[in-house]
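call fold(seq) -> tokens
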Amino acid sequence: MRSAFDKLISGAGLALAVALLAAGGLLTWAHVFIGNQVHDQLTMQNITMPTAAGLAALPKADANALRPYAGSPLDTGPEANAYANHYILVHLNEMANGQTYSQVSGQFVTMSDAQKASPAGQKLAALRQNLFMGDTLRGLLLYGYAFATIGTIAGIAAYVSFAAAIALLGLVLLGFWHSRRVELTVESIVGARVAQPA
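ret:
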């Protein structure tokens, strides 16, 4: 009875270990696929991180966030995050005195046609266009960062799955070993009793 129970538990553990190995394989595939996609898409944009000279004009906190990547090609999620939040955003805020695209666009839309045609209206239209392009690029870079983070999490989950599968396989082997040991012990006890004269 004990031997059968050990085999049942060990069999269930073996099925779970196989499932964990499959999950680890899929998570590894997701990690590699996402990492390659983020790298390739960011590389195609051909953006170079600001150099030391470009960092000098930024606020200290933003310059410090960009300094580790200075002058390198923007091709990773953390670089995309730093560039979006510490370079593009700083310039957008400076350009629009902290106003968002929505605020500037709202001002432009409420202008009359004559006001839009005036120099002030044209200046506001250009600011609106620049904010739209800057916010769009910033949003796309942050999507790249988000996907890169998902890829990193998938990689960590893959390691955990593989480690759990290996630990479980060790326990499964112990379970099967124990069931065999119980069978041998029972056989030896039964054999000894049968061999005793009545």
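Helices lie at 2-44, 52-55, 60-66, 77-95, 101-109, 113-117, 119-195.
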